[in-house]
Design a protein that fits this description.
It is built from three helices and three strands; from the N terminus they run βααββα. By secondary structure, the chain is α+β, with helices and mostly antiparallel strands. A three-stranded antiparallel beta sheet has the order 1-3-2. A hairpin with a 4-residue loop joins strand 2 and strand 3. Helix 1 packs across helix 2. The termini are far apart.
């Protein structure tokens, strides 16, 4: 059975980013996490990682659509 919660180092590996970038995602609120234990170690629920990925796909699609819209407007002389 896969773990329900993973440390930020695993999140970083899963997303192919640095540990500091994973921590920044948590600090910004883009990726929900909890602090556990006496030393306050960060843990992220695997379902939260999947939700973050889906939100990122949607944000990227919206960004690309806006880019295409601006390119069309420039081509039509409206930009």
């Amino acid at each position: 059975m896969p773990p329900r919660f993973v440390p930020l180092s695993d999140v970083a590996e899963m997303l192919s980013i640095s540990a500091s970038q994973a921590y920044a995602l948590v600090r910004s609120g883009e990726l929900r996490a909890i602090k556990v234990g006496g030393r306050g170690q960060w843990r992220v629920e695997t379902s939260e990682i999947e939700s973050y990925i889906q939100r990122s796909y949607k944000a990227t699609a919206n960004y690309l659509e806006e880019e295409r819209r601006q390119e069309r407007a420039k081509a039509d002389g409206n930009g």
